[in-house]
Every structure is written in C-alpha cells, then in structure tokens.
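Here is the promised in-class demo. Please do not try to memorize the tokens; focus on the logic of going from shape to residues.
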C-alpha cells in the first residue's frame, strides 16, 4: 500500500447518525466491548444466523467472574473487556485492537446529549495510555478526518508502533500484523486510512530493499549450512545460545524481532568464519564478529 492510496480516502465523509434508528446488527456491534466476542458476534451476523446469537455474545460488558473465566482460556480473550462501561445512549464509533498479551483495545465512544454529541477516547487502563485531549463535542457526527485527528491526538497508534518497532527497522508486515483490528460500524474507510498511514510510516523509516535482500540471503546460507553440516550447525546453535544468554530480555514486541535478526546475522558471520578457518569460532572470536 503506497502513500498515494490516501487519495482514495474521503476524509470529509460524515455518517448520518450514530444513534437510533439503526439496524439491529449495527446497534449490537457498536456496544459489545470484548474483541473476541465482537468478532464471534460479527461472524454470526455476517452468516445471517441472528437467531443463534447467545446472550453472552450480545452483552455489552461481562461480569468480573465472566472476564476471569475468559482469561483462563487465553489472556487475549480479555481484550476489550476492561473498557469503561458504555453510558445510556452511548456507542463505540471506532476501536483499535493491538497484539499485546491481553489484546488491548482503545476506543472512541459517542453519546447523544440534549443539543450536542459527546465523545471520549477510552482505554482499558483507566486512561493511563492516553494523552492530550480525550473528550470533545460536536453538533453533527464527526467527519472521518476529524475522527482520526481526535483519536490520534488522545492515543497515537503510530507512536505505539514506533515504541515497539523502531529497533526492528519498522518492518511493515510486522507492524500491520501487530494491529489486530481497526473497526467502525460508522466509518467504512477508517481501517484503510490507518493501514495507509502505517504503510507511510514503514516507507519513511523502514529498512530498504537492499537490507531485506541481505536478510533473505542470510536465511538461505543458514538453511544450507544446517542441511549440509548438521553436527556443526548444532554446535553453533549451542555456542550462540550461550553467547546471547547475557543479552537483555526484550522489552517489546519489536525488540524480540530485532534480537532474532541479530542472531541470524551472527549465525551467518560464524558460518563464514567456519568456511574460511575450517572450524567454528570460539566465544571470544564470536564476540569479535559482533564488534
């Protein structure tokens, strides 16, 4: 996706309303907090199986006991379940889900007031991940451009990606995969807008094609070495594991991949050393390769 794709997005698009009268499907999907429950609910709606929707899926929020029960299945099932409860006449108009351990969700809520629409950006941590202006009002529904500006001003997805992927070279595939969902029942192009911005970010900061070719070449060399010299490959893997055991534990999703890339480069250098010296490097020689 190129930056030029932004030209196909109508930032002036404004939905007619966020509130009743709306279709039952839109009403249900705009009030369910849990990411996994919402996905399951949407699958049933898309399949035309409305009569099969269980009560637990259609509930806006769950009890603490129900949330703990979901969390025991997998922490990701708790995603969205700790968002603030919706007020009467309030709906979710936008939500972004990221691939953190608990699949964190950040949302924009909209509530109908007497004369104006009241908006708030909410997270699952009592506002601890938010900054800037987190509430506003308007007389009409926001345009797509206004919504994105308000949402990003309170919680910047691009800053989150920067914190997680700067060390990994802003790999676009990894960043796009990290963003599990960008959803809105009212703004059909919201996901396209954000995905385009992620592509722009990767193009501005990411590794170039030459670096990607080097990584691909490393993988080919390593695979051939493992195939042709399995005993040496096993010994090398043990050496690298011992050598890298002192590396600091990765603190983010992106730093994991950065360390994996460093290990891959180290394997390639050690294989080249073995090819030249006819033996594997020792620990000190391995350290010299990383200098």
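The designed amino acids, position by position:
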């Amino acid at each position: 996706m190129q930056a030029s794709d932004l030209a196909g997005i109508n930032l002036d698009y404004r939905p007619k309303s966020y509130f009743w009268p709306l279709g039952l499907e839109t009403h249900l999907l705009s009030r369910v907090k849990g990411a996994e429950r919402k996905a399951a609910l949407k699958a049933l709606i898309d399949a035309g199986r409305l009569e099969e929707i269980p009560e637990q899926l259609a509930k806006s929020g769950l009890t603490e006991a129900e949330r703990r029960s979901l969390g025991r299945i997998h922490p990701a099932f708790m995603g969205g379940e700790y968002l603030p409860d919706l007020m009467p006449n309030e709906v979710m108009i936008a939500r972004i889900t990221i691939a953190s351990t608990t699949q964190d969700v950040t949302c924009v809520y909209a509530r109908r007031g007497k004369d104006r629409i009241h908006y708030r950006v909410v997270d699952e941590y009592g506002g601890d991940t938010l900054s800037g202006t987190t509430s506003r009002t308007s007389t009409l529904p926001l345009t797509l451009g206004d919504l994105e500006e308000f949402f990003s001003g309170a919680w910047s997805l691009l800053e989150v990606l920067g914190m997680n992927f700067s060390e990994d070279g802003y790999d676009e595939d990894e960043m796009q995969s990290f963003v599990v969902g960008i959803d809105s029942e009212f703004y059909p192009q919201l996901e396209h807008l954000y995905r385009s911005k992620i592509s722009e970010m990767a193009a501005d900061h990411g590794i170039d094609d030459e670096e990607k070719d080097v990584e691909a070449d490393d993988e080919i060399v390593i695979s051939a070495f493992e195939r042709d010299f399995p005993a040496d490959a096993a010994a090398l893997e043990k050496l690298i594991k011992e050598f890298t055991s002192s590396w600091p534990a990765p603190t983010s999703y992106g730093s994991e991949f950065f360390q994996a890339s460093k290990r891959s480069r180290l394997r390639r250098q050690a294989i080249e050393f073995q090819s030249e010296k006819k033996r594997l490097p020792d620990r000190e020689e391995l350290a010299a390769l990383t200098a």
